[in-house]
Amino acid sequence: MDQPFVFFGAAHVVAIALAFAVPVLLAVAVRTSGNAGLANAIRWAFAVELIATYALWYWLLFARGWFGIGSALPMHLCDWAAIAAIVTLLWPNQRSYELAYFWALTGTLQATLTPQLALGWPDLRFVVFFGFHCGVIAAVLYMTFGMRMRPWPASVLRVIAWTLFYGVAAGTVDWLFNVNFGFLRAKSSDPSVLDLLSPWPWYIAELVPIGIVFILILYAPFFVADRIRHSRSRP
C-alpha cells in the first residue's frame, strides 16, 4: 500500500540523518587508518552512487511517463551541485569542489528539507530523490572531512559569480521552454522557504542577498579556523 510522504516523519528524518552521519563516520575511518586505498574506494563509491541514481531517475521518467523538458533537463541547482560533486570525486580539484560544497549545503540541503514528494518510503521516487540529494550532501561532507578539501577566500567570489550565471542560464531555459527551473517563474507548490519571501517576481531579487549570506555563513567556520591558526602562529 502506498504511503503518503510525511514532512519530518520517520523516513524523512532517517534519510537526512544518514546524509550527515555516513560521511562523517567514513571520514573518521579514513583519517584514523591512513589507508589511501580505502579513501579512494570510498571516493569512487560516492561517484558510482550518484551516477547510478541519475540513471535510475531517467529510467523512472520513462517508466512512469514523466519524461519532459521540465523533468529531464539537468537545470535545477541540485543537478549542477551533483555534476560538480561527481567531477570532484572522479578528478579531485578545487574549482568543482567549492561549487559542490556551497551549492549542496544551500540549495540541495533546502530541497532535502522540503522535498516535492507525494509518496514516502518505500516508493521508488522517494528512494531516488533522497538517494540523489542526500548522496550529494554526503559526498560533499566526505570530500571536506575525509579528503580534507575546503573553500578558500577566493572561492566565495567565484561561487557567487557561478551562481549568478546559473540563475541566468536557468531563467533563459525557463523562458524558452515554459518550465520552472530554479523556481524562477513561480514558487514551489509545496511548503518551502520561498513562502517567507515576497510574491513573484520580487522574491527573485531577494534571493541574491540571501544566497550571498548563506555562502558567507558556510565559509565562516574556515575563516574563523584560519584566524585562530594565524593568531597561534604569531611569536
Please give a handful of descriptors for the protein shown.
mainly alpha; 8 helices; 72% helix; 0% strand
Structure description:
The protein has 235 residues and is mainly α. It has one domain. 72% of the residues lie in helices and 0% in strands. The protein starts with 9 loop residues before the first helix and ends with a helix.
Distance between the termini: 68 Å
- How confident is the prediction overall: mean pLDDT? 95
SSE order, one letter for each helix or strand = HHHHHHHH
Report Rg.
Answer: 19 Å
Secondary structure elements and pairings:
Blueprint: H1 10-33, H2 36-63, H3 69-72, H4 77-90, H5 94-113, H6 124-145, H7 153-177, H8 202-233
Task: Please give a quick description of this structure.
By secondary structure, the chain is mainly alpha-helical. The protein is 72% helix and 0% strand. It has one domain.
